[in-house]
Every structure is written in C-alpha cells, then in structure tokens.
User: Fold these one by one.
Assistant:
Number 1:
Amino acid sequence: MRPHPNPFRSRSSEQQRDVRSFLRNFGAGVLEMLPKTLWDRPLVIRSAPGGGKTSLMRLFTTDSLVQVADRQHDFPDLADWLNEVGAFRGGRPAVLGVMLSLDRDYRSILDLGAPSEVAHRLFFRLLDGRIMLAVVRAAAALSSGNATDLERVQLRRRREVDGSDEAAHRLGGDSGDGISEASLTAERQILGMLDSLLPVDWHSGVPGHADLYSLRLLSDVEIIVDGVPVDMRPLILLDDGHELPRAQRDALLKKLVSRELAVSRWYSERLEALSPEEVLQAVGIEGRDYELLELERRAAEGTGRGRSRFEKLVTEIGNLRAVRSLERSNGGDDSFADLLETDDDLLSSSEAEVLEKLATDTRRLAGSEHRYQSWIETVEQQRGYVAARHWRELAILIERDRARPNLDLFDLPSPPQEMERLSGADVREAATLFLAREHRIPYYFGPQKLARLASHNIAQYLSISGDLFEEMLGAIMRNRTPRLSAVRQHIIIRRASERLWREIPKRLPSGHDVQKLLAAIVTMAAQETHRPTAPYAPGVTGTALSMTDRAQLLQPGVREKIRGAAALFRALTSALANNILFAELDRSVKSGRFMVLYLNRLLCPRFGLPLNYGGFREKKLREMASWMVEPEFEPPPDEPDKELELPLWTA
Amino acid sequence: MDGMKWEDYVLASGSGEVSKLWSAALEIKRQVTFVLGVGFDPRALVPLTSLLTQVGNQRVRVVRLGLPSAGDDDFTRELTQANDRRLRELAQSGVVEVESIVYPKGVESQAAGLNMSRRIQSSGVIGEKDLVIVDISGLPSTVYFPVIGGLLEASCVQGLQRDLQVVVCENPELDGIILEEGVASPGPIRGFRQRSGPDDTSKVTRVWVPVLGEHQEPYIRSIYEFLAPDETCPVLPFPARNPRRGDDLLRELRLLIFDTIGVEPRNFIYADEGNPFDLYRGLCRLSDRYTKALAPVGDVSVVTSVHGSKILSVGTLLAAYEKDLTMVSAGPTGYRIQPGVGIDKLTTGDHLMCLWLDGEPYR
C-alpha cells in the first residue's frame, strides 16, 4: 500500500464493501435533484454510465441509512437531506431499502433458450425470491445486526390487497425462515438450470410465477422483528434495468407501475438516446403512473448562481475525497477546489510582447475608421492579462461589426457602451480561448473548468481529479503547499484528453468508426469555432441531427440504402452508450426539433475547443453518413508507445 | 492435494509431436469429429488441414461453431470468405462432412457458448465413442470453455467412451496484428459459475486470479471493477520464451496492478507459458489453500479470468472445471486486422499444441 494513496483512485472493493467509505465520499447535494414524490409511485432513474444512479440508490439501502442515522455528526448534510426527503423520521430511518441488480442471471434465462412461456415465469420467480430474501435479511439485521437470524422475522398481513394470500403462499408463508427457504430453493433450482453444462429440460417442473408476488405481498404487510413492528416502509431498489432484454424489461415495468401496489419501488436504467422507441411510453404516463428522474438533465439545471447543480455536486465530492489527504499537508485548510484556483500571471515575462502584438494587430484591423477609436482607447488604458483579453475581444467585435449587413453611412465614432452592448460572456470566453491558443498560454485550469470537463459524469470527474491530485501528492510528500499552477493543470488535462482519445478504438465497440465520426465532428467544430467573427461564441462542440432524420436512421431498411448509415448508426450507438457523445433529444432549433450531439467535454482539450455547451451545427443524415466513408476522416493508426505529453497547444 | 484428474497429462508441442499424438489416437478405428470455429483468423483451418494428412480415407466430421460478428472492415470480411471457401472445398472433395451450429443472435456472449454446447449435445452430432478434437484457434473463450466443459461433463456423467483432445495453433506475431475493439460487459461464463457457493455472496471472500497478457488493460480493469475482489493473485508467464516477458507485463500494467488494484508483490503466481497443466496445478493448489486457510472465517470464492494465450487458458479451464471455480470474461466486441501487413509471411510462425484431456490415456 502506498504511504500516500490517491483518494480519487480508491479501490472499488473498498467503496463497495465499506459503507462508511461510500458515505464519506457521497455528495449530499445530489439529493436536491430528487422529485417531491418518492414513495407512492415508482421512481425511474436514468443516467449515462458513471452518472451516479447506482450510488444514489445505494444511499437509500438500510445499511447506509442506519450508518447515517447512527453517525449524524459525521454526516450532518446527508442526515438533513434524508430527513427532508422523508427517508428519516425523528432522526431514524423510515425506509427499509433493499437493492438488487438486474444484471445477474435474469437475461440468461432467455439466452439459454428457455421457451417464452416458461422464461417469464422463471424470471419473476427468481426476482421474487431475491426481493423477499433481501427484505427479511435487512429486517433481521436491524436490531441484532445478524442478517441470518431469520426466525425472528414475521410478516403480518393487513389483508387489504387482493391476492396477498396467494402471494404469501407462493413466497414461503409469513415467517422469515419459510420465506428464506422458499427463496433459496428457487435460487438453487433456477441457477442449477442456468449453469448446467448438460442440456436441461425447461419443463421439468420448476414452478414459475405469473406475477411479481413479492411486490403484492410487501404492499400488504407489516414487518415484525422479535414481536415488535418495524416502523419502516419497504423500499425495493432495482438497478441496471438496461441489462434486461426488452421483453423482460417491458414485463417488469408493467408490474412496477401497477396501481394496486403500495410498496415503494425505484428502478434505474441507462439512458439510451438511440432506442427505437421509448420504453416508458408503453407502460404509462409520467407524473401519473411513475416519476422520472434523468440525472444529467436535472444536474445541468442552474442553481441561479452561475453554476449548475452538477458543478456544485462534483466540487463537493472532490473536496470530500481529498480532505483527509490535504489535512496532513502544508496549507491543510485549503480544499481541493481551492488548490485549483490560481491567480497566476498567465502572461508572465511575455506580457509586453503579447500586448504589443495584440495592439498592433487590432489597430491594423480597425484601420483608419473612427468608429472603433474610442473602443481602442478604452482597452489601451488597461494592463496585464485583462488587457490582453480585451484586445482579443475587441478584434472579434470589429470583425463582427464589419460583417454587419447594414453598415453605417457615415464613419462616426462609436461609444464604448456600444462595445459593451455588442459583447457578452460568450464573446469574452471566445476571446479567452483565441488568446490562449494564439499566444500559447494555459486555458484548461480551475475548479469550474474541471467540473465542466467531467461532462456530467461523476466517474470521469474522479478520474481527471485523480490525475491532478497525483501531482498534488508529489508536493504533499515534499512538505510543500500542493497548489497547482495553471500551466500544470492545463498540461495534465491535455494529457488526460489525449489518453481518452487514444483509448477509444480499444475500449469502445466499433471504436474505429467512433473515432472517424468524432474526427469529422471535431474538424467541423474547429473550423467554425476559430472563425475570426467567432459566430458561435465561445465555440462549436457538437453537431445535431433532426428528429426526423434520427427516426430514419433507426430503421434498418433506411440504413441499408444510405451509404455509411450503418457505420454511422454503430458509431453513434457506441459513442452514446459510452459517454463519448452526449445527446439532448427534441431540442427546438429554428423551425425544427433536433437530437443535439455534444462531444464529451474531456475530448475538447485535445482539439483546442471550449468547454461550454450551446454551440453546434446541424447536419443532414446523408452528410453525416458520408463522413463514415470519406478517407479524410480516417483516424491515424494507434501509437500506444508514443508519449502522452503534448505541447501546451497543438499547432 | 489428492487425486487431481490431470496430475499426469498428455501434452504435445510442435507439429511433429502433435502428429505422433494423432497417430496414436487414430490407431483405434472410430469416427473422428473435429470441432472448430471458422472466422477471419488465418489459423482457423491450420490444425484441421494438418489432421487431414493423417486420417487416410476416413471422412472427418467437422462441427462448425458459428461465431459472433467479428468486424466490419473489408479485410476481416475477405479473410473470413477465404476461410469459408477453403472449408467448402474440403467438404466438396469429400474428406470432411460439415455440420453447423449457428451462433445464437441477440444473446449475451457469456451465455452464447453454453447455449451452443447444449445444442451440440442435444443434436447427437458427436457420437458416444468418437475421437473428438476441439480446435480453439478460431474460437473465443466464451464458446470453447462451455463446449469443452460440456464434453468433459457428458463423458463423466454418462460414462461415454469418447476421447477428447484440444488443439491450438499459436502465433504471437499474428496475435500482434489482430486489433481488439470494445469491451463487452463483464460477467461469469455460463457453465463456469461456482455452484457450491454460499447463498449470501456479500459475506464471501472473493479471490481473483487473472492470467495476465499483453494489451489487455481495459479488460482486466473492467473485470476488476465488476468483481471488487478482496484479494488478487495475478498469474505471470514464467518460464517463458522471452524471459523478460513477466517484467514487460508488469511495466505495461504497473498503474493498474499496483496503484488501482493494490496487488501485494507476494501475491504473484508464476506458470509455465508453454504448459497449461502447470497453471492448472497452480490454480488447484491456490483454491485448496485459500479454502482451507479461510474456512474458519467463512466461505471463499475463487474467480479466474484469462487475458493471456489460449493454451494457458485451457489450464484455467481444467482448474475451473475440477475445482468449481468461477470464470469471468470481458472480451472485445470486435476485431480489426492491422492494415498493410503481409499475413502470409507471418503464418510461418504457426506453432501447434495438443492436449489429450479424456479417454484412453486416463482409463
């Protein structure tokens, strides 16, 4: 074990097994995103891989809630939020949460050739057994901590729900022991059929379930432990629904939205922007039959202070992760985010040279026109980096002004207020980027840019932060303040960006096609971003396909007819599933509705693109498909041994 | 450690030795059934072609296992078509008769192999007294593990008089130009999931034994994140033709092995690169040792994954079959051939190996 482990690279096993470690690193701010209705209707949670849906559900398991309740002084924010959302009552858990992953075994029932009339029944039986076993074990663990002491657990039926008698009979009765025995028997029988190396007889008499009896039963019982009712409502957390084949998923969701059920149930699945049809539309109406929480969409909403919820959340997570390591360091009062804030003099010794060049270029651009005189005079009075940025901003504004369709008849001076009116945050950001590229100064640094680089993905944030913290660890070991300069942050981030790009062919299905698609998007984005007028300030970082074209692309017959469409579909599916592209569906643009495809923000540094969302160019399906067959977008061969170190900017 | 099934074993390395082994096996007159996969890999038909020089007038039954779609580039398609043509020519000439087992569509890779293995057994295409030779050169591990496991199990449970051999054509230079794409979701290979495990897997100590290989970092990482093991014991190939191969692997995988996974140096296991039975013994010993040592504190689950050569993977298969170990895989989702390489020149490096796993030598 390293003497100074990197807290951003904590071992999965520690995170998974150690509840306290998990809770210490959990950003409570994510609970702000939960809808108001959590317990009465099914909650469907969607996110991209690494978006945090599993961690969110894990927080509501009994283990986690009990830990928070027992250690409220260690987790005050979590305790407050859990109280706010109704998971706590009087400072104790009000919810008996059990979590099951849907990625284990269920799919194999169909994959191994069970006839459809048998497959669903076995699916429900296996899931029922696991749900009931998890609930009685969680109840048993509550008071004595011994999850196997199940004879202490009883279910007392209220008999208010139709069919609960039959459900109890099928699930092993009302006692913890009986339920455990029935569940384990089902598990052994069904897994025995799934793992036999010899052929099996699917009709051999292993009985299945026509319904999800566990949900019905749990809607109608009081859980008793040692004769005392447990004052907690059961909460069933079903994770990774996208791992189920479509038929099983449909069948499950239909059961979950049943209005006869009173048990709380949450279900999570990966976001699939290229799914042929919306699964949930077939099972019910959002708001009436279920609540939907799309984590990235919710996280992207602003908090009203210029930062999105996501930025606030990941910054909190980063600070939590690093706090113990930083306590031991010089300057231990600074948080991880604090140590990324820098007031470095970005121009340093080349300030005079840079300002001189910028002033000369801008004056040449303005020519002898009086219109821009006062604008120039305003900037001339400034010094330092601020002056440099203003010169560059002025150049963009002059280019834009010249390109206006209705030029003034007379060349009269324009007041400085006019320059302010024509500018804006987007132009200033474009100026910052242009200035950085043209004069080789850092751009990718600071906690806000780090949060943006995460691309709404917590796992990605932790990975980049891990790279930055590795450098900080070097300073901590030498007993120095681990503040990272802007230059070092920029270099580390560019290296991480290059690594992501190089991993694409290896990590992603159809990785070569994905790189080709990205090469085309980036070529277009770079051309548009660096136009002198910065028309899409601060820059273009994506493309868009109309929803009509998207529907066309989803049809196999259409893909066969358009050259490159099949490769485009493969590349898009892979890129979206693996967070290389991020999609916003049904975005209104001019007169149409579009699927906007943004690059993963971590790809942007490699290509010198900005990190803001907003700028994209729409393309027709045929043009996008043609990218896949054009040799100009063929990515260069993989060079795994080539150094990852890049110059500050690529020419 | 008592009564290991393959304590004594039969292994032939090199064309000459393999040829002698086959001569011995062919002395008994019976049907020869050759199981293989024919895709883009240029090695796919090498062992069959070699065998056909020894069978005389006897017609070999070929069970062709379908394969998942490998790649979408022109080169892999051309190579696949060339192999298809060659096999058709052999069938038309009468030296082989071909039966096909189709790869199941829309099925997870970890279940597809068992699906096919069960269909092979149900179809009766392999006789009870056949000499069965499974060529794994062109097959993914998710297919040949359950196929070989199924054949072993059928012989054991049903008392069949089959002889079973596994043959592979190794060629590290060819491996170097086959580029893997994508990482499939990790999961246990069906048929190789610990059956005798406890019901509450959250209380089990999980020991992971990955067999390391070059350019496998994404797959090893993916399985590590899936398993979250309590202990990791990586296998390094030693002795090996390149004596520094183990060092090179550690250099390549340094960040993952030491920083992310946190492997202790004493946990490394060494297995002869060219002898899968050495690995088989090592894994059996490890499984017994951990089970015995940790028995007072609870149950142990030993999980393996293969990221090295195919011949070594057979050692893992045998240990998993005998000791009820779980096999996890997270392989590539597609392949490409590096463009601009003269494949014909590389095929001179083909090296045949054959293991006799069941039948005459063990009776």
Number 2:
Amino acid sequence: MGVDLSGVAAVSTRRGQSRTRRASFKGYLFISPWIIGFLLFVAIPMAVSFWLSLSRYNIMQPPEYIGIENYRYAFQDDPQFWPSVLRTLYFTVVSVPLGVIGSLLLAVLMNRDMRGKAAFRTFFFLPTLTPIIATALLWSWLLHPEVGLFNYVLFRLGLPTIGWLANAKTSVPSLIMISLWGSIGGNRMIIFLAGLQGVPVELLEAADLDGANRWDKFWNVTVPTLSPVIFFNLVLGFIGSFQVFALSYVGTDGGPSWSTWFYMLHVVKQALTYFEMGYASALAWIFFVFILLFTILQVRLSSLWVFYAGERS
Amino acid sequence: MAISSRRHFLRLAATGATGLALAACQPKVVEKVVKETVVVTEKEVVKETVVVKEAVEVEKEVTRVVEKEKAADVIQIRYMARIGQTEALLYGQRLMEFNDLYPNVKANLEQYPGGPFASDYVAKLFALQAAGDMGDACWSASHGAHYFFFAERGLTTDHAPLIEADSFDMGQFFQPAVDVMGYKGSYYGLPMKAHISNGLLGYNRDLLEEKGIAEPTGDWTMDDWIILASQLTEDADGDGKTDTWGTNVSTGSGLMDIVLPFGGNLLNEEGTEAQINSAEVKEGLRWLYDVYFQHKVVPSPEAMQGINSYQLMASGKLATLQTGFYSVGNLNALIKPEKGEARFRYWMVPMPYGVNSVRPNHIVVDCVSVTSASEHKQETFDLLKTFTDKEAGIQLAMGDGVPGARLDLYDDPRMNGSHHTENDTEMFALWQQMLKECNAFRYPQNLRNIELYNIYSQELDKLWRGEEDPTDAFFDRINVLVQKLLERPTV
C-alpha cells in the first residue's frame, strides 16, 4: 500500500508560495522608501510634465489643453528651436571627445611614478571644485576683450586680440575651453586613473617582449582594456554636455547674437522668463527622448569597440 | 517581592522625618520685587505670577511678561516689492508712518530678488499666486510690461471702484503717467514714480571745459550730438586704441527711443504690427550703425562686455552717455565719495530732437497695485496712497533722485536741497518739463515684452558688432521674426 503524498506536495507548494510572498513583501517593504520617493519626485512629476506639454500653461491660469501644438511649434515655427539644437550639438561634439581624450592623457600622466604626483593630482582636480557660477564669472573677466588677462598677453606679444565671449564666432569655442578647464582634471580623470590600475601588467610585459613601443602598448593594450571606462565616460559626458546651461546663462546670457543660446537655456527662458510652462515642458520631453535614443545608440554601437575582459568574443 | 527588614524601614523613616524637620525649620523667604521688567509681546495670553512669601526679605529681580492684548481686528497686509531697489528707502519710512496712522492695520514689507526686467520677482509673484499665498499689494512697472501682464492675468485688481469710492483724484499725477497705466478701460494701480527712460544726455562738465567745448543746450539736433561726440573721442597715447569715447547709446530696451527722432516706431500703436522695416525706422537704425562704424564715437559691444556706461564714465573713458533720471543715483554712487568733492562735475540736457521736434524718450512708470487676492482692498489702497502722495514723491526724489509721478512736488524746498547735482532746482525743473512732453510707451498687445526685447538685443546686436550690414533684407528678416512673435497668443 503506497502513501499518497500528493496532498503533502500541495501543502508544500502552498507553504513555499506563502514563504515566497512573505519574502517578496519584506523586500518591497525595504525598498518602499525609494519607490515612494521615485513616485513622488520622478514618476508623478514626469507624468504631470507630459500633461503640461500638451497644454498652454503660465502658472496663473489652469492649464488649457492644446494637443500637440507645442510640439508642432517647436519643430516648425520656433525660430530658436533648431538653431539651439545645432549649437548644443556643436558644443557637445567638440567638448566631449576633447574632454575624454584630455582626461585620459592626464590620467596616464598622473599614473606615472614621479615626485609630487599627489600634489599634481590635487591641482588638476581643483578646478572641478570651483562652483560653476564662480567659474563663469572668473572666465568672463579673464576673457574680457578690453581688460582681460588673455588679450593683455596677446597684445603684449604683438598678436591680434580675440573677442572670446564677446564675439559670436569665438563665444562657443571659449565656452568649450572653460568647460574643459573645469572637467579635464575632474571626476573623469579619477575614473580613468582607477581604470588604469586594472590594466593587466602581464599584457604590457608581453608587449614589451614582443618589441612594442610606448605608443603600441598604449593603443593596443591600455586603450582596449580601458574601453569600458572610456565608454562610461563618453555616455556620461554626452548626457552632461547636452545639458550645458550655467556657463551661457551666467557668462553670456545666450549672446552675443544668439551664439550661446543653447537648448537648456532655451527651455529655462521659456519656463521662467517667458512663463510658457507648457511649451517648456514639451521642449523638456523632446530633450528626454533625444537623450534616451542617443544613449541607446551609443550602447548599441559600443559592441563594436568596447572590450570586456573575460567576455567571449 | 523584596521584603524590607524592620531595621531598614526604621532607617528610612528616620531619614525622612529628619528631612521634614529640617525643611520645617528653614527660614521663610519673602520675595520683594525691586526691579520689574515688562516685556510686551504680540501674543494673546496674559499671565502674571507674583510669589510672596513671609519672613526673610530677599531682593530679587523678576521679569514680568505681560503679553499685549491684541487690538480687535488688526488687519495685516503684505506689500511685495523688489530687493535692493532705491524705493526700498521709501518703503521703510512710509510703512512706519502708515502703521502709526492706521493703528488697526499693520503693513508688512516682503522683498524678493528682481533680476533682469524683474523676471525673478515676477516669477516669485506667480508662484505665490499659484500657491494661494499672494500678498495684498505689489510693485510693477510699465517698462517690462509687468503692470499690464499682472492686470491681464488677474493678479492685480481693477482699481476703478477703489478710486471712485475714495474720490481719489488721478489728476494729481502727470498725465502721461496716468495715460500709460490705462489698460482695458481702467486702472490697475497707482503711479509711484515716473521718468523718461533714456531721454537725457549726461556729460562730464569738467572734460568739456578742459577741451574748450561749449556745453550742449536742450536746443540741438541728432547731428549736433555726433559732432560733440566726435570732438570728445580721443586716442590720447596714439596706440590705435580709443582712450575716451565721445558718447554711448542705449541699444537694448532703449532702442525704440533712437528711432523716434526719425519719425519711426518699432511697433504700431496697438502693439500688433512690427515696423522694423519701415523707412523711418531703417533710417534711424542706419544712422546708429554709422555712429558705430563711420563716426566711431561709441564703444563697441565687445568693449562694453560686463561693464555699464556709468562705470565707463566714472573711470573717465566716456565723455557723455544717453541716460535718464535714474542715472543720478548710479553716477553719484560711483564718482562721489562720502566726504569730499566728486571726481568730476556732470550735467544733463534733453536728448536732441529729430524730425517734428521729437526727442528719443518714452514714459516709464513704476506702479503700486492692490492684488485681486487681497481681502482688505480698501486698507491696501490706503497704503498705496501713502506710497504715491506728495510726501512719498519728495522722499523718492531725496533718495535716488527719481521723484514721484506727481505735479505738486517741485516747489517743496526739500526737493532742491537734495544735493544730487550742482543745481537741483534747475535739474528738477528740466525733468518736470520733460515729463509733460515725453512720448507714449508702446508694448506688444500679447504682452510678450521681454521676448521682444530679447529679439531686438540678439538680432540687432549683429549690426553693432559688424556681423551684418543694415540692408533691407536684414531688416525684413527681423521684421518677420518680430511679427511672428506679435502673432503668438497672449502669454
């Protein structure tokens, strides 16, 4: 006579499910502060912002639903939408690669054994600690066409002075220069320094044995090993750079002649100076979608050049 | 349960009894109040406790807190203004006087950052309105169109009923100031200050005397201005860089003034049509272009980066500048030390006239208004009267030099003893005359004034920087941009 265990198995399953549910409940309970915070400060505001992007809203009156009119105006009629996109792209496409390359080279330099390495690392990091407002004000004076230090030196050397921030052609390159000053020796360099510690010494030694010179080792060993770190810095660099705002808001107020009227400045002006909250919300959503698609593209393309150690080819 | 032994109990009882005996034997203390400090506060509860004991007298200081009985129905009203503006001096003084005059009303000042065109201040007020925490009264101005914006959006209330109920005479103010405040057939505030934008030319009197150049009079033309500026522009050390500029021109929000002497205006009267490509406006803007590139008597926009004209003039690098009433305070702050003589003497004359004797100026009015949210509109209106009466107008003039928008100030002896200029009597007489004759202010009907100024600034800047030439095509393009903005919905 066999023992009927089906009831036992059913009870076991129910007890197992109950334990799983209790465990799940406890897990959710522990992460509930984050979930509540996410809902209150991210998800719900995003949903409200999306609704406002379909409305005309100036704070004073309730939002008036206008459908996709804000989006249509942005893409078709706003005289500063596409120019601000192009200016922001120009700023980003130049400043991010230069910044990543600069930070990498600086990290390689700081990784060498030399006297005063700690002091050099500190000095290069200090500009990152300068508040952006102070940076913008400081550089506004350094680059002043009439009384600035840079033009004074050029004048003394008998070279033609430059308009810098006061000239529409040189304003964006000047902002790129200021941005690089503040970022090359900052967190990006620190991250690269950390990455450089992970470059396998045996590969470098093997390359040495094969007769590789410094450049060969750097290009064929160091860079591929660092590719995940480079990818990380590129993604964050692009996301941050697309949001350029404070430098132009404080330093140039979007001028001269619209030359530094970047996308985020356009959004802020629409929202807080012209009180077009609905339109600013639409611009913000367009920006969000663009950043999302751009980042997805970067991730997809990364498979072509990012090498993860231990990954099967 | 711990059981106490008999010995333990007796020990405790003895100790307790001894304590009681000692306490009973202590001399009693009499507290005699020798100094009483009464602190009066605003709270409701009034409590006073006095302890008197017998026997020994001990001198003691006590603080008796007597909380003031709140008067029935004391109304609190909130007045919102910008931080750091010169009228802040007025507010402090007049609020105290108002509170004394109306003991059942207490007016409080709240100040918020201004920002360019007071945009931060406007944003703050909008946020307060949206949050349901709006005050009772606010400042605004015609220049940035906030006054009209507030009226359109219901932030300020229609003042006609208040004016009528009070039998308040609007005729006590300069008519151009009253006219500019008319909106949709009513008034939405009272005029506190009035001036004529950049309708004056300030000049360094000592420099003209040194060079033997006759001072300008009010009877002169735009060409006379350029001749004067040319005489004053100088490269003192011969290094190819101008050391002293002859003059400076307001190319920002004051641009509308420059085209007035040529018979033009940037907008039509209703504020619905752009007129940048009209023949008169083009003539005015081309004249200004020549001032930069043919006559070369004004500093370039690059040279003015981060610097204002007053600083340039105070440092001796600018001989004359297009300015307004408000510049008196700005200039004095830079050139007059607290004690001693000013760095140089200066004076002001009306800007030169052009065709039809029109001078480049327009009326600018600072207003004070009762908000729609106020639950004490009559009391708040009484406060506004305090900010706009004769005494306030005189205090404004004695402060930064911009008098109130009233006709009856100028005979008061205090006006002429303010020591803003060498001869305040003559200066105020000039301003009084100019206020009567100044040009009307035009603004976009959809109230997008700040956006409009930004377009003027960014687009026309290309001319003054030499990036574009003043061709018909250029003006047509700007006109299209401005017209598109004017066709946008009211903000």
